[in-house]
Amino acid sequence: MSTTRKSVSIVIAGSGGTGAITAGSTLLAAAARDGHYGLMTKLSGAQVRGGEAAALIEIGRSGIDGPIEAQPDRFDALIALDWENIQRFAPEIPLDGDSVVLSDPKAGPVPAVIAATGARILEVAFGALAGSVEGGRINMVGFGVAARLAGLDETAIEAAIRAQIGAKGEKAVAASLAAAKVGAEALAALGVSMALSPGEKKARWMCSGNDAVGLGALRGGIEFVAAYPITPATEITEWLAVEMQEHGGRVVLAEDEIAAINMCCGAAYAGVPTMTITSGPGLALKVETLGLAIAAELPMVVVDVMRVGPSTGIPTKSDQGDLDIALHGTPGDAPRVVLAPISIADCAATTERAVHVAEALQTPVMLLSDQSLGQTQTIIDIPRTRPAPLKRLVEPAVTGPDFRRYALTESGVSPMPAPGNPGTQWVADGLSHKESGHPSNAAVDHIAQMKKRLRKLETFDWGDTWGEVHGPADATLALIAFGSTVGPAAEAARRLTEAGTPTRVVALRLIAPLQKNRLAEALAGTARVVVVEQNASGQLFRHLLGERALGPGAESFARPGPAPFRAAEIVAHLTAETREAAE
Amino acid sequence: MTIHEAPHVCPQQALTLKDFKSSVEPIWCSGCGDFGVLQALQRALAELGRPPHEVVVVSGIGCSSRLPAYTTAYGFHGVHGRALPVATGLKLARPDLEVITVGGDGDGYSIGGNHFLHACRRNVDITYIVMDNRVYGMTKGQPSPTTEADWDSDAAPGGTGVKPFSPLAIALAAGANFVARGFALDVKPLAAVIAEAVRHPGFSFVEVLSPCITFRPEEMEWKKTIERNAVTATTDRTEATAKVLGANEMTTGIFFKGDRGAYASAPTGHGDAEKIAEKFVVGA
Ligand SMILES: Cc1ncc(C[n+]2csc(CCOP(=O)(O)OP(=O)(O)O)c2C)c(N)n1
Ligand code: SF4
Fold it and tell me: How close, in Å, is residue B65 to chain A by CA atoms?
């Protein structure tokens, strides 16, 4: 028997309707039940429904390594249920001479792009095997092949099938179990194995970042959601629409993104924690009202799940190009809070924190997620820490004619009683206003209120929201990253450290207001600082430069989507730069 | 959702127009029709009997949209064209409040036109009062979607050449549950129409012909051309539409009172988010 391994990376691909994604989800679910971590990226063609699909999966790494937070550099196996259009995905499925390709000779010859990788080609008669089982489907044969290849446990396999297919009835479950079995036997007959070392069986979470944002919203106390559908953010809205039926609260499908954020303004004014959810094009429509919410001091969470832009761009692919609009997009000068989850697990806690901060500071909080965080499925440790709850200040100091909604307090936060409360009637206004809320063109009023809004963000106790540092204390190299770039940067840092360059990752969560002191502490002692981000112009790098948060030698490694960052790419960039610098 | 106490009406203490009059001085030109609408609204609110702190007046941007600060109710003066979504969110979050939306023809029919359609369709229990002066007053006199095709202005010399549309017909087609037209200077009858609009469930739309004395002084002639209460309300949408399209566009009164059920407010009560979190757990 061959030796076991720490992780295995497998692609299951097929044309529309073959169920490659279902097979992938079932593999992930089985791995979770067998004690492993996992990560699954879904690829699909441009067709709305049907078309080719592929599930890119890595499972394993149980024990000391912790969850998988980046796509692997290469794949160990490609399970091709058929060959229709798979070449379109070829660049996203790196294979090499150590990889195996399992395909059905009946499905035609192996495409040249796949054969050219040098991967070992093995034959599995997916069609015939599925045909040998009553109600058998080739995707479940493929699942059986994958599960056996990874050496997953029989009971985990059965439990995963029941969890994924159970709703379709006992007959479908039996057919899937039988199909998986013939697949596993066929794989065994080929004599290949990439079996994982035994996982630590314990309760974990299986979810996507979009699911986790939904949960964080409910934990934070969101009661009213208004949104207009847009990829890749819609799943959050749909998740909340379903869960809120039981939980209470409401999701309103607005006629457009402008309506959505204005509905949130109304709900916020009414005293209810509220959220709107969108992606870049929708955020662009919301910015005028974002300014209103900042000026009128209305709490809300604005979620942007970034995709490739500008314009419609590539809706299904990840990019981090909305940072500029999140930081600066509104008419006038409008200080704001921008939070970005640093991992899929962190999507829950950071969203919950976003709700609390919005309520406590009476201001919109931008939550910048991205397609990669949002739509990737993972198996992760159950997050155990949750942010301490914070509430809106509603109790007025005085009522009657002396009540001033925008009183100039030391903290910048002033009481915000909700309608229904007698003696504190106030008008929310986008016009520059006095402490009373009444419109004023006077410079003194305008400046005093502008300073009040800045002060709220400056005096707030941000605690550890600013970010996290991972890596050795004696690091000489620091990588600064946010969002889904943190995972591959952290993996790159591990490798660089192992290879003799102690490297640290600084994961920025609170992008604005930037906590410069915390960032400086995190960078202390390093000789080289590189800002890694997935956009063309280095938006985070420019932001940090503008804030004077980087030393003169700091470097930018920025490149746009749609290709995901892999650790190998970051390592290669850094070592090439090192070589150049030395020459 | 947060549970709020049911609105309490205090019959002993009758409210008057004064209770809804704020100390803020309107910026309107003297003689502006909007003064009449403000007075009519204050009268209607007094008659309805809900205290000012249980009422929210929502608006967008324009001369007419300045109205909320001139009442003693809670208020929201948002951005141009977006008053209806604000009011929708407010009412859905807090069904216990009385939500009145006000604005101009530019605000409601031009930049906010899409929201107008969907507010009619959605039928949330709010009242929408449009002060239609057939001009953009605040930006100093450009034609709006209800301006006559041949009205001459700097922005469209000789007129736009574009036919105005009928907001009432649009409201009926889009599903509004109450449709009426009033005249700003007929304060008492307008107050009665507004009060009825507020009482009527669902989305109530009141189009008010409100002269802009500064940029459309000829509209002061409306006093003479208005056909007062020359219509009786029907519950039949087709009949109401025929009346709207057939009648003189100066006809005031209630055209339609429908029986659509209002868009339901949110289910109340707070579940346990940790129960939902358990759905993420595998491998236990
Ligand atoms: C997004 C945006 N576009 C344009 C304007 C400029 N603007 C302010 S009020 C207005 C038109 C107001 O007309 P109407 O709604 O009919 O109200 P009135 O002033 O006539 O009462 C315009 C175009 C603005 N404030 N915001
Ligand atoms: S410009 Fe016209 S609409 Fe505006 S306040 Fe003056 S009269 Fe009224």
Answer: 11
